[in-house]
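> tool_call: predict_assembly(chains=two)
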Amino acid sequence: MKASCAYCEASFVVVAMPTVSLDNAAPSHAVRDTLQLDPSLVDQEVIPAEAAQQLSSTSRKAVFHGTGGTLFGIHLVNTLLTLVTLGIYYYWAKVRVRTFLFGQTEFAGDRFSYHGSARELLNGTIKASLVFGIPYFLMGNAGQFVEGNTAIQVTLKVAAWLLLVLFIPVAITGARRYRLSRTAWRGIRFSFRGNTLDFIKLWFSGYFLTAVTLGLYYPYFSTKKHAFLTAHSYFGSEPFKFSGDGAVLSRPFLRMYLLAVAVAGIAGLGLYSVVDLPRQNIEDPEAVGSFVVGAIASLMIGALVFRLLWLPYSVIEQRFFWEQTSIGSARFQLPITTWPYLKLKLGNMFFMVCTLGLAWSWVTIRNIRFITDQLELVGVDNFDEIVQAYDGAPPIGEGLDGFLDTGFDLG
Amino acid sequence: MPSLWQGSYLDGRNATRHPVSIQLTATALHIVKADGHTIRWPYGEIAQTQGAYEGEEVRLEHGASLPQTVIVENSTFLTAMQRATASGASRFHHPNQRPLRVRMTILAGVALMGVTAVFYIWGIPGLAKLLAPHIPVLWEEQLGVSVLEQIAPSAKRCADQTRLAALESIVTRLSRAVSDSPYRIRLTVVDRPSVNAFALPGGQVVVFRGLLEATETPEQFAGVLAHELQHIYKRHSTRSLIEQASASLLIAAVTGDFTGGLAYGIEGARVLGVLRYSRLHEGEADREGLRLLQTVGIDPAEMIAFYRIMEAQHSHDTAASSYLSTHPDTGDRIEKLTALAGAPPRHPMKLFPHEEWKDLRSLCRHSVASSPQAVTDSTQ
């Protein structure tokens, strides 16, 4: 479809239109939404017309074949066996669900396959419990036995907290390493080869800068995280590449951020005028209480607005992350737009609330379909040339010495 | 049914999809590649990883960590494979078994409802009752103290030591009747108008001024204390924590994985469950509290009389609201306690004369704590 850029007036061809749209939205709406959300993102989609014609001819699409009813059936049996075995079957249940979901996902005419086992998941849980869970519990509760020694109590609490914070990046890389190594397409395994220590450094520095800048660094941090996880992932011998820069996301993020702050400020001022919160004498304990309540209410309103605006931002973020990801000479496209995504999320919440959570299976399928219906790999690439790089060794280390760079999954 | 099937072969070394012909014999699968090369897979060494669901292509794998794969799109291939082999066929999915699988799934759904109900009604309260005695009293005490600081700040505690000591003597009289308790009971009176009292883990009993002043006799107050003491002795707070965690786990198991916003959907189910357990605890505290009064020699009718005062204050509550409450309906509680109380004792104990009680219950009118130590201890 030919169009022109509203900002630079250059002609281009839209190559990433969804062929199946959940809400039958006209393609032109999708383009318009993109332009309204962030002009800088549209620049990412500008491809010369001739090149686009060539690329569209090699477009590969994802299809999801599973139904909510089938997943619900699997879930019923899984739940029964998990309850009867007092939770032990949980890991087998997890493998059954993953095997089903992977087997129902087709890309470029071939389905994915999952090769994980319940025993490996159980090992992962035991391993994480030994290295993180038990020390965290002990440090968190040992303070009670050194009553009176505040310094030791505080040290133990801080150490427990640090261990918990450390666990998150280790768990992210460990789970990714394990899951990719157990995922195959055309018999070729995926893998993750990132160094966990590097990710921990990235994680802590990112959190530090995000905190120091009162959250404004977040788009750069999230892009760096995603870049690390993507650029160290492989399909067989072929690496994925990520070319995104967090600066692209900073503009829509800043817009959302400022809007939330402004609404919180206006809400705070409004509260003062409506409920006549004290403007003076806030040294009076009762008045301080009201002042604090007013401030908390404003913050809560700001947080609510931020949460609502997060949905359109996450559309921009997901689309940006996919569109900056490539493998070989082919690049992914995910032309999702705000309104269908909003409808999906609100619909999911409605179903879950109305069924007290029993609609989980259908919600899961809806979420997967939303992505697979629109995900495309565009460009020339010959998958036939990709060779197996997985050596068959399990990614779970036998000892704990190499724990950081071994894959593990909690299920 | 064809004797030769068309499919694809993946060698596990590269991503090339090789078109192949597949021949089924009694003992093995023969895969004939385009160059004429034939690969033989004995049925006993093959794993079927896909093709169990309708519309799914059949995927067979051979080998350990990096298997070779054969994919056949035509699902009738499975039926043919079942016919071709007599032994080892059970390791492959049979399409004819799909209706049976649907029936088994429905049966599992029914069984799941039964198992969930059993866990919900008996399993979770039973588990909490079993585990709670094994939680160290020290942990409960520390939890109780930290919660007390939140809900009864020192500045709000009524600190008239003389009157407090008199109230404390009622606590002591009741707690002495329970000889095997590990708890040290502490009474705190808070200067707030609410007609409320509650027990915290580890032996803390908190009474609001509104409730103290609403009691007409010291025996009515003893009835309230007996109820709260039973919450402590029966470890209801600890059991509640275990019940809440177990209810969350049960609901998570039944509803599947959930994160973020979707968790709100199941929150309602969890809260309903927790409220039910809370009402069960209240019922138990009522029954055991009444027995405690009888043991000490106080007329249980006094406890019931105070519940009637409470009932009058909450006369606007609807019957339906009892399902959404932490406490059972007051009318029902009175009815059950009246049935349980039986005949009144011949010589009921009188704790304080009426005039003295009127003075004692005005404790908070005389002083509110100026120091943090506005609490008395009762050591058993």
